[in-house]
């Protein structure tokens, strides 16, 4: 098990990270210069009230959005120094992202949605289908390969999104409320999956509103009004 | 991501938006078919007209009585109707005086009634000589043409145009039958092949008799030597203007006229007619092509509209694909191929429709349509360019967005 207090260089490091949204003349400072370091193999939960900036942090970590201030180092490299193609490769190989709003393509059946990251990863066709189906089985959707998102319940769609994040075996899972739409049974299944991935050395960062979910993580970061309020180790797990 | 993968992705996008794809293809298809048909129709009409004009005979000069500048058109002492005589025709036939003229056919034409069995039919009766068949580039479907002997003996023989033969005898065997013209009985010795009609004459409704017969039996009097038209055939295309010069000089001499502007005859050339008509129809073709090009442009704007909507509607999809690791190049390639698939299938289907219609329609509208490979190739090219430029431009823009901005767009 990797000790979260390890002195190794962190994989994820925000330094004075600030994000100001501009729409027309209106500016909104969603992140007010935060520092955050996460080491390889950590399991971190981010908690905070709605609108506090959790998704903003997550999008930056996933290289989907850029900071307006400060820097983000991923694996020791400043992402500002990377070009579009390198960023695409990082998003594809290293990061499995679960979006708050699923973001499935409605015209494609479940397995084709799950397969997408593999297409851009250059995985051969026959292998892609196999891996997509295995990934769907892992989230308990073994009988829903061919259904389109519109034919699935909210919880099932969320699990398809999780399956898609897992399919490329990324080293980092970034999940924005992955259990928000799930019943308690499915929530337990997904959390068990994350536990398993964590046990296998993956770095996991998830956003949640539920204390019960946060308790599975080794570390909880509390965010409020674009600032980090508290950053604490979870006694139960860390013990 | 390989081109093959891009192709699969693009194809599944085209396939899963079947209606929109079909409409896009339809827009291009109609534009292309319209271009092919209108250009084809223009070229076809042009071809028809030149074919009709040259069906009168090749390298032809036409000498008509009367001055081209004097609208009365009547001069000289040969009665009241013609300044040209059979003597003029004979002089022009001389290889010494007019070496560049290879054939001469004088015509003496009157409208007369023909009678066979109980049928009456009025047509133009032309008296002419053996050379007429060559000079006018006509052929016989059955029987024989007037011979030199018929001419010498003023034989009472007649060759009928195909329509005339039809009117008089219907399905009966025509050669060997008798026809009464001006109370004289003529024997039918041949029937001409059909030649259609030109702008002024029906070339298939006529009766041809030896010139001498027409002069003595049918017309008679002071006008017996007068001819209504002399057709001259130049030995070759290149000798046409030489032939023109010779004919003019010779006729001016014969008519004792010194000033060529005072000539009592007019020589016109078939080629001049052809080139005038060709120029007119070329202009028409350009005009039609312009109209067709416009319709293609309108189709193109429709395609552009659908593409723009399709891309902005799919900005989220672009954002998602980028978020999952698609490099900008893969996004551009996907939309490039998608647009090319639509443009190409629209172009090909349009070409198939246009060419099919070009084959079927002439039977219906009675005018030829010439399929121009250049028009087909060019319009398919334009279709692809339209699809690609209007599909790829917005896609390239969307591919540059930060993934999260693309994902947030509605
Ligand atoms: N594109 C944007 N333009 C302007 N303001 C934005 C934009 N995205 C987010 N915000 C604002 O930034 C703040 C932080 O948003 P964020 O999505 O990070 O919240 P959150 O913590 O994830 O909330 P929730 O728990 O409801 O998902 C919010 O006040 C939000 O209104
Ligand atoms: Mg959020």
TrEMBL record, chain A:
The keyword Transport applies. Keywords: ATP-binding, Nucleotide-binding, Transport. It comes from Cryobacterium glaciale. The keyword Transcription does not apply. Residues 12-239 form the ABC transporter domain. This is ABC transporter ATP-binding protein. CDD domains: ABC_MJ0796_LolCDE_FtsE (cd03255). One of its GO terms (molecular function) is ATP hydrolysis activity. Transmembrane segments: none annotated. GO terms for cellular component: membrane protein complex; plasma membrane. It holds the Pfam family ABC_tran.
From TrEMBL, chain B:
It is found in: Cell membrane. GO terms for molecular function: transmembrane transporter activity. Residues 21-249 form the MacB-like periplasmic core domain. The keyword Transmembrane helix applies. One of its GO terms (cellular component) is plasma membrane. Keywords: Cell membrane, Membrane, Transmembrane, Transmembrane helix. The lineage of its organism: Bacteria, Bacillati, Actinomycetota, Actinomycetes, Micrococcales. InterPro entries: ABC3_permease_C, MacB_PCD, Macrolide_Exporter_MacB. It comes from Cryobacterium glaciale. The keyword Metal-binding does not apply. Its main location: membrane. It is a multi-pass membrane protein. This is FtsX-like permease family protein. Residues 291-402 form the ABC3 transporter permease C-terminal domain. The chain crosses the membrane at residues 21-43, 286-311, 341-365, 371-393. Belongs to the ABC-4 integral membrane protein family.
